[in-house]
Amino acid sequence: MELKLLASNARYENPKLARLQRTLLDEFSDKNSRGILFSKTRRGTHCLYDWVNSNSELLRVSIKAGILTGAGTGANHMTQNGQKETIQQFRDGILNLLISTSVAEEGLDIPECNLVVRYGLLTNEIAQQQASGRARAMNSIYSVVAEEGGRELRRELINEYLESLTAKAIDQVQQMSPREFRHKISELQQIAVLIRIQAERKKDERKQRYSPGQAQFQCRECFLPVCSGEDLRKIENTHHVNINPEFVRHYRTGGQVSLERNFEDWEPGRVISCNKCGKDWGMEIRFRNVVILPCLKIKSFSLKTPGGKSTPKQWKDVEFQVKEFDFLEDMSSRFPDLDLDD
């Protein structure tokens, strides 16, 4: 009862809904109006649908609303047939207001649509152009309902500015001669190549920041020091293995790893985990059916360098160069009694 009293009090009215109501009343005073109201989420479309259908002022101007959301199997999803039926009802005038998620921003062409409203929706300039493009009729209205000074409104103003820049750029391109156009394309391609080369150089510099011996690995769970970068090798730029025979004392093995496909040079072995805390470290691999090597997950380790501690998410993020695995050299050092010349 108390909630009903609060809901009926104008002091607690949502100012955005009040603004939306005025916009809809202005446009739907014309009985031939049709509009699309965009909301961010499926739940939002259902809330707005309930609000429209319970609003006596909107019902007075004969607004007949329908919901259009993405296809799927969830509670708030629509079937593809449901989508097609709703769109057809909108085309035929049975519905005159679609309350939709972004699914209707692109590709929906209703020539009679004269109103597009974005309700508190934060998107980019492309989505803005697609949404505003749904209003096809003469003297169409594109409106944004957002908090004054809020980030949705700021984003919308940025979108308008970017749209104007895009229009200017297109106009400049269209005024170019074929020769000028080819020259500009060539110039941009050269700049792109230079940027890519510079990015690769920076990546290489990052890889050379420390020597392998300056990189110390610790278990990310219990911080047990386990190896240095000198102990690591990479195989086919994919597998990062530890070739130090002493490393085996830091881990214990678990169940056999099973993969759906077979590989030419290696096959999966057993799961490996920290001997102290049980943190998953990766798995053993049998390489060329000769040697078993621990293959490590970088996410399982923290890295200590002269620059401090880090927790890389991928091997490409480490700040030293992992050496390529050399079968003869590395196996000779691992197994000095092994005669690989026979």
Automatic annotation (TrEMBL):
Residue stretches making up the Helicase C-terminal domain: 19-177
Any one GO CC term of the record: cytoplasm
Superkingdom of source: Eukaryota
GO MF annotation terms: double-stranded RNA binding; single-stranded RNA binding; zinc ion binding
Biological process according to GO: antiviral innate immune response; cytoplasmic pattern recognition receptor signaling pathway; negative regulation of RIG-I signaling pathway
Domain RLR CTR: 205-332
Short name of one Pfam family: Helicase_C
PROSITE patterns in the record: HELICASE_CTER, RLR_CTR
Family annotation (PANTHER family): ATP-DEPENDENT RNA HELICASE DHX58 (PTHR14074:SF7), HELICASE WITH DEATH DOMAIN-RELATED (PTHR14074)
Protein name: Probable ATP-dependent RNA helicase DHX58
Organism of derivation: Sinocyclocheilus grahami
Lineage: Eukaryota, Metazoa, Chordata, Craniata, Vertebrata
